[in-house]
Amino acid sequence: MATLIAASAVRTCLGSGADTFAGLLRSECGVTGLRHGDPAELNVTAGYHIDDHGRERFRAGRLLAKCLTEAVAESGVDTERQRVAVLVGTGLRELSAVEDWALTGSGFPVSGLDFDEVVRETLPGVTYVTTLSNACSASGHALALAQDMVELDEADVVVVAATDTMTQSMLAMIGHVADRPTERVRPFDRDRSGVLLGEGAAAVVVVSESWRGPVLGRLLGTGLSCDAFHATAPDIEGISRAMSGVFSRTHRDPSTVDLVVAHGTGTVLNDPVECDALRKIVLGAGGDPLVTGVKGAVGHTSGSAALVNVDVALRCLSTGMIPPVVGLADPLDEGAGLRFVVGGPVARRTNLVQVNAFGFGGVNAVTLLEAR
Known about the structure:
The protein has eleven helices and 16 strands. The protein has 372 residues and is of the alpha/beta class. It has one domain (3-370): Peroxisomal Thiolase, Chain A, domain 1, CATH 3.40.47.
């Protein structure tokens, strides 16, 4: 049984969800010089920063609160009168605050690592809050759980949210696997040089099909896999299982997909594997969708990546406009046969959109959204 998405809110380096989508249509790139840590020590000189809140501690939670407030207000949900659960997907939780505390030598309140307190302060009356720290597909996994909870009547409404900010440990990791600092993310490009972090937060409101309020689209389902193939490297079989799983779960044929909002990290390993999986599962079934992606414009928003893609997908469904893959000029060989949107936006009415999100350790989530 499908569910509905009643509202969506996003924060990226380009601004709100509406601002981000408008920037994508204009092919804007939000990369700036690195504002967190020592670029020389980290071997990272650039990032996709949100200007809100400066370097305040617990910044991830503050960004999360903004999106929660906006999405719930837009939906009209009453957290005091309805059974409202909140699932927060994240890759790094409040790790940046932990790092700040470590540098000062003071103690860290363990309860502040997750987001229960900030959610309950922002949305009084919620019945259930949990944080899923599930790498870069965290909010995609949370979306799958939310649909199950609504379908099983465990909640009237589930708010799926996500947040991640920059941490020195994650910056050091991406910096020390690169031969040279990456200047910008170039998804699916032959000359891509690696990933850069983007700060981001998002929230969507998931409700049943009996909902009588505003509706942005139908959440048909999410296919999941956890292949544990490698700590960081993607596996085509694991990703393919997630793709096949969502079509099986939703009784949709891959040939009917109009648009793919790809994971597209701009890394040496991810982009070819994602292309191979799309060719195998979607093109192999006779599909011919357009393919776009957002990380060239907003960076890799970690646990928020799936929901940022969902917000873009919903806006594509409602506007009939598909933004280009910012930073893509010369598609890699493995992309042969895929119709990447390059150079500028494309006007095309879409009905069925596939959203990809893949994470370290082979935790993969592939979601199907439909116009309503």
